[in-house]
Amino acid sequence: MITTHTLYEPQRQRRSPRRLALAALAATALTLSGCAAMWAQNPDSSLKPVKAVAMEGDARVMLTGHDVVAYFTLGHHALGQPQIKSVYEGVTFRFASAEHKALFDQAPKNYLPQYGGFCANGIEYAIPWGGDADSWRIYDGKLYIFGGEASRDAFELDRANSLKLADKYWAEEVAGSNSFLQRTKRLIFRVPHYKTGAELAQAVALAKAGGVPAPAPKPVP
């Protein structure tokens, strides 16, 4: 089967030049569209990689412009204003008020989201991906962002061990890496404890239903 497929695949491609052209165009578009994101997420600073995007004249805006101080002072996420901002380690932070900017400027590290603002559940698997400003938690005075409620619920099934794993992989692999290359690597070569989204969703559903206890702690390599 493999040999036959390999022999006939080039012939099928020669018969479909339009399909090849479309595939090449799609690949080019993906490459070009990824350039801006790659630039934004990988500053030449200690914050690399970071969940940032280009917005309204700013090359790297943390968390699509959400105010990182608001999580601590207001207890909820809030959009910052483009005119109230600070640049720290090459990344722009926007704030909802001048007071929040002043707090950040006094001690920026107190307000930085952990793992560059990427989904903490993703970093548990060494994958810098996702991160929604409205899905978050503060643990022990530190801000953690998640890719959504489902990701947060999965992380909190065994929060202590999830934090250990995320801290380990951030320190040993992700911090300082190129977000796109690291993501690609770990989507192909998965960590030993990797679970699919479906598997995590099932574990969360069972835990919420009280059907089974939370999963046994995942081993920290």
Give, in order, the helices and strands: HHEEHEEHHEEHHHH
How would you classify the quaternary structure? single chain
- The structural domain count equals 1
Task: Provide the structure class.
Answer: alpha+beta
- Determine the fraction of residues in helical runs and give it as a percent range: 40-55%
The separation of the N and C termini measures 39 Å
Strand order of the largest sheet: 1-2
**Overall 3D shape:** globular
- Radius of gyration, CA atoms, in whole angstroms: 21 Å
Q: What is the mean pLDDT?
A: 85
- Beta strands, count: 6
Major sheet details = 2 strands, antiparallel
pLDDT < 50 stretches: 1-15, 21-26, 213-217
Tally of individual helices: 9
Strand % is 15-25%
Sum up the structure in keywords.
alpha+beta, 9 helices, 6 strands, 46% helix
Description:
- It is a single chain.
- The chain is α+β, with helices and mostly antiparallel strands and 221 residues long.
- It has one domain (39-209).
- Helix content is 46%, strand content 16%.
- It has helices at 2-14, 17-41, 70-73, 98-106, 120-123, 149-155, 159-174, 179-188, 197-209; strands spanning 52-55, 58-62, 81-88, 91-95, 132-139, 142-146.
- Strands 1-2 form a two-stranded antiparallel sheet. Strands 3-4 form a two-stranded antiparallel ribbon. It has a two-stranded antiparallel ribbon with strand order 5-6.
- A hairpin with a 2-residue loop joins strand 5 (132-139) and strand 6 (142-146).
- The longest helix is centred in the N-terminal third of the chain and has 25 residues, at 17-41.
- The two termini are 39 Å apart.
- Residues 1-15, 21-26 and 213-217 have low confidence and may be disordered.
